[in-house]
Each structure stands twice: as structure tokens, then as C-alpha cells.
Amino acid sequence: MNNILIRKIESEDNKRLAIIIRKVLTEFGGNRKGTAYYDYDTDFMFEAYQAESEVYFVAEVNGKLVGGSGIKTLAGNNGEICELQKLYINSDIRGLGIGKALVEKCLEFAKEACFEKCYLETFPNMDAATSLYRKFGFKHLDKPIGDTGHGGCDVWMMKSL
Q: Which end of the chain has fewer CB within 10 Å, C or N?
């Protein structure tokens, strides 16, 4: 039986989480400019999610960090829209409902923080993630919104909270 824990990120998680993020991005061809692979924040996730209206949750299975996801105000909007960011889970642990648990936790936080909508960007070949987002009510958009700095992502989705 797997013991799954979802908790807020701690500074000690930075190094392991950066490895997970880059490993998953490489798996899906996202190890290129315009993606989280090259974000400064990827190496400093704890520090990057310290404002009042943002959070990053990590998932542990049997005490081992296996992934995470976060919420931030979407840059370049009036503050009513948040962004679901950096949902990455190790390939060897997928299928246990960790992604679902992380998205639930993030959307719960977004609602409590009084955001009206939640936006995300991803890659077209991340089928399982896109399917999960649709189950949560995310709808595809024709073009990106805000200023995420991720020109390498070409799937854009949003949902009302």
C-alpha cells in the first residue's frame, strides 16, 4: 500500500523537485527554450511560491518526493485569474491519483484566494494531463493569455472557479 502525502513545499525540496520537473519535461520533449525547463524558478520553487496568493504543493509517496503543482496569479492580468503551474509527477509513480489530488488541492486554494478563473498551459503530447484538466472542467482556448513567458507551450486551457 502506498502512503501518499500532499503538503506545501519546503526549501529542502528544491533540488529534488527541479530534477523531477526537468526529467518529466525531457520525457515529453519540453527540454527547450520557452518552457519551465529553463525557468529560474525551477531551481528555487520554495522561494518562488511565497506570496499570499500563491502556493506550491508537493506529493510524497512512502516518504519520497515524486512531484508537485502550484497556483500563482497569472502575470499580465488584473489579478482575477490564477495559473495552475508546474504539475509534474515522476513517470514511475503515475496512475495512483496523485495528479488529481494535486489539482484538487490547487483549485481549492485558488477558490479560497478568491480567484475567478484558473488558466494553464501545457504540451499537446501530455495526453493524460490534458484529459485530467478536462475532467476538472478546463476548456481549450484558441490562444494564450497573460504573460507566462512560456512560448514553447501550445495548449491553453481555462476554467471558471
A: N
Running DSSP on this structure, what letter comes out for residue 33? T
Domain boundaries, the chain: 4-160
Report whether pLDDT(75) > 80: yes
Which CATH superfamily does the domain covering 4-160 fall into?
Answer: Gcn5-related N-acetyltransferase (GNAT) (3.40.630.30)
Q: Do residues 58 and 17 make contact, with C-beta atoms less than 8 angstroms apart?
A: yes
d(CA 48, CA 144): 22
Rounded average pLDDT over 99-117: 97
Closest CA to 121 of 109, 133, 108: 133
- Cα separation, 118 vs 74, whole angstroms: 8
